[in-house]
Amino acid sequence: MEDFSSLMQGFTVALTFHNLLFMLVGILLGVLIGVLPGLGGANGVAILLPLTFTMPPTSAIIMLSCIYWGALFGGAITSILFNIPGEPWSVATTFDGHPMAKSGRAGEALTAAFTSSFIGALVAVIVITFLAPLVARFSLRFGPPEFFAVQLLTFCSFVGLGKGHPAKTIAAMMLGFALAAVGLDTVTGTLRMTFGFTDLLRGFDFLIAVIGLFGIGEILLTMEEGLAFKGVHARINPRVVFQTWAQLPKYWMTALRATMIGCWMGITPGGATPASFMSYGIAKRFSKNGEKFGTGEIEGVVAPETAAHAAGTSALLPMLTLGIPGSPTAAVLLGGLLIWGLQPGPLLFVEQKDFVWGLIASMYLGNIAGLIIVLTTVPWWAAILRVPFSIIAPIIVVICAVGAYTVHNAMLDIVLMLVFGIVGYLFKKLDYPLAPMVLALVLGDMAESSFRQSMLLSHGEISIFWSNGLVGSICGLAMLMLFWPVISKMLQRLRRSDNDLDEARPVE
Amino acid sequence: MHDNEHAEDGSRRGVTTRTMEIAVAAAILLLGLLVMYDSHRIGSGWADDGPQAGYFPFYVGLILCAASAWTLLQTLLAGKGDGSVFVSHKKLRLVMSVFIPSAIYVAAIYFIGIYVASAVFIGAFMYWHGRFPWLKIILVSVIVPVSMFLMFEVWFLVPLPKGPLEALIGY
Questions:
Q1: How far apart are CA A303 and CA A120, in angstroms?
Q2: What is the mean pLDDT of residues A147-166?
Q3: Which residues of chain B lie closer than 8 angstroms to A223, CB-CB?
Q4: What's the pLDDT score for residue B72?
Q5: Residue A226, SS3 per DSSP
Q6: Which of B50, B60, B67 is nearest residue A456 as measured by Cβ atoms?
Q7: Chain B residues with beta carbon closer than 8 angstroms to that of A415
Q8: Alpha-carbon torsion A235, B132, A228, B98, what sign?
Q9: Using CB atoms within 10 A of its CB, is residue A11 exposed (0-12), middle (13-18) or buried (19+)?
Q10: What sections of A141-268 are H helices per DSSP?
Q11: Looking at beta carbons, which residues of chain B come within 8 Å of A168?
């Protein structure tokens, strides 16, 4: 039980006064970010990242990851009370959450949402606690070809598991890779795609892209929808909370399914958003009250919230153990690790024990604190949303501009942020997925260098990627994921011609 | 990406999704060609010491072209499509009413610093979109930049772009 003692050690790190304070600040900021349109987990963390450069890494990551938990909780508030998903992963929560609120059961819906998010996150943290050291130990054996294979698998999973059109997913991903390649090539010292602009030497920072794509893009989209915040008043009192808690155990099966979907989608980078939709769809199919979904079923709140939180949390597992983030926010946290001088990957578990276990312990504490905070402060957050959008929108643009500037103290970055804002707006409207683009931008250099190292090892023989069982099976899995859209279509056709049974369809 | 120029009047009309789909896919295709061109320029082949600098980006560009060509062809072959509107002129005007002030704001940061620009931007935005009373506008548009100033320049010691006004008070 070496890991258990490491975890206890982690709790002593996380339980210092300082770190508890950062946890609290992080959660409050996170809920605020989750509630406000245009600010979300990914760009919220990106904006605050530069402010943490001077903090000790453990405190910094505790605060930033707590912002993430807070944002996950906060998304539910706007979905249920205002029918406006504050975050993409809480879209599915609006389906049943808002009807519940309208029929006067807002407190019940909120309690169910918060509690099930908490349970989803808790299970995911337990999974991380036990699985992460194993994965890390296993991946110590990885060489460059294996790392490239895992990265390949990550990106192929987007094609296989994503909801969008494969061509668009691939285009978005490659755009990220292309942007990542801009600037000075560190291996050969060649300038790539700078076209004589010295400002492009630094390349495109993914933090700027995240702030623009998710922040400015979101503001433009929100504006188009012509915002009228018409919310339902909410008051949560302890009686409602306990009554709802008494009901919840009935839905253990729904929660279990949702958690499993969430953990799976989080570890393979499907992300929280598809996980929540998938979980909602499956709950609807299997529930006795399936046809009543959409009219205010508590189960319809439990399913997506549990899955979203489980996915959001477990996205940190591959980030910590392999250096491959499972979601855009995890990608931003990974960027933070690199800036603090910590190399994510298997060695992190050996060399930075305090950091890793402090973070994992803070996940337990952060989620407990988060649950208590959101349950007690809901009316306050709802009040913030009643501030007119014409005040909130310019302030968010200002915050984004400041965030973009502080990354490198470069004016050009603010301009780039605006450009990424337009790209985000267009891509969102045309169903180009943003997550693979951001992840490619973050991982581009790493993927390229592990590819190059493998090529150097093999003297340019591409066959190194199936030279042993391990790398071969990862690559094989990657190919399966890449061609999954085609395979699933063929399977469907086969099944349909077999008998007209309309079985549970795999993810689009 | 600015394909919105052929504006006709009438608020129900707008740019069709098909047009935008083609415009964006074509833009990505061009970008892919640009990536391939530049990677080819710096060498996309194999040197004695391994892959050249343009090796990886060249194939990225190639796949980028292929993926956007796929979308492009699919959209073109689908015929007129359902004629759904990407953004109506009314909505486009709303979007532009946020984007254009934001662009002016960013340009203004160059000249008058971020704090003054933010104050003007927030104030103007509140006036145009919210028609708030003057007192409220002035209050919000002063409090936000001042608290930003305190937070960044004073507490966190992170310098933000400043203009003549800040120079006057010694920053």
A1: 10
A2: 81
A3: 94-95, 97-98
A4: 92
A5: coil
A6: B50
A7: 106
A8: negative
A9: middle
A10: 144-161, 166-181, 206-210, 217-224, 238-247, 252-267
A11: 67, 71
**Token pair belonging to A234:** 């909410």
Structure tokens at A230: 């018409």
Q: How many whole angstroms separate alpha carbon A344 and alpha carbon A167?
A: 31
Q: What is the CA radius of gyration of chain A?
A: 22
Model confidence pTM above 0.90: no
Q: Does the beta-carbon distance from A455 to B106 stay under 8 Å?
A: no
Q: Print the domain residue range for A18.
A: 2-485
Determine whether A453 is exposed, middle or buried from the number of CB atoms within 10 Å of its CB (0-12, 13-18, 19+).
Answer: middle
pLDDT of residue B104: 94
Q: Among all residues of chain A, which has the CA nearest to that of B142?
A: A395
Location of structure tokens 């979907």: A261
Nearest CA-CA distance, residue B77 and chain A, Å = 15
Q: Tell me which chain B residues have a C-beta less than 8 angstroms from the C-beta of A397.
A: 98, 102, 105, 121
Chain B residue with CA closest to A219: the answer is B98
List the structure tokens of A380: 């306050």
Cβ–Cβ pairs < 8 A, chains A and B: 170
Q: At what angle do helices A299-314 and A252-267 cross, to 10 degrees?
A: 30
In terms of Cβ atoms closer than 10 Å to its own Cβ (0-12, 13-18, 19+), residue A230 is: exposed
Domain annotation covers residue A335: yes
Nearest residue to A432 via CA among A222, A221, A166: A166
Nearest to A247 by CA among A100, A101, A115: A115
Report the interhelical angle of A106-139 vs A91-100 (nearest 10°): 160
What is the radius of gyration, based on Cα positions, of chain B? 24
Longest dimension (CA), chain A: 69
CB-closest option in A220, A401, A406 to B99 = A220
Q: Hey, is the C-beta of A177 within 8 angstroms of any chain B C-beta?
A: yes
A193: left (phi over 0), alpha (psi -120 to 50) or beta: left
Taking only the tens place, the pLDDT of each residue in A310-356 is: 888 888 888 888 888 877 888 888 888 888 888 888 888 888 888 88
What is the arithmetic mean of pLDDT over A151-177?
85
The pLDDT tens digits of the residues spanning A27-86 come to 999 998 888 877 777 888 888 888 787 788 888 888 888 988 888 888 888 888 877 776
Chain B CB contacts of A421 below 8 Å:
99, 102
Instruction: Determine the pLDDT at residue A426.
Output: 93
The whole-angstrom separation of Cα A312 and Cα A27 is 15
A434-477 pLDDT tens trace:
888 888 888 888 888 888 888 888 877 778 888 888 888 888 88
Please say whether the beta carbons of A308 and A258 come within 8 A: no
DSSP helix/strand/coil, A285: helix
Considering its fold, how many domains does chain A have in total?
1
Q: Is residue A507 part of a domain?
A: no
Q: Is residue A491 part of a domain?
A: no
In a domain, A500, yes or no: no
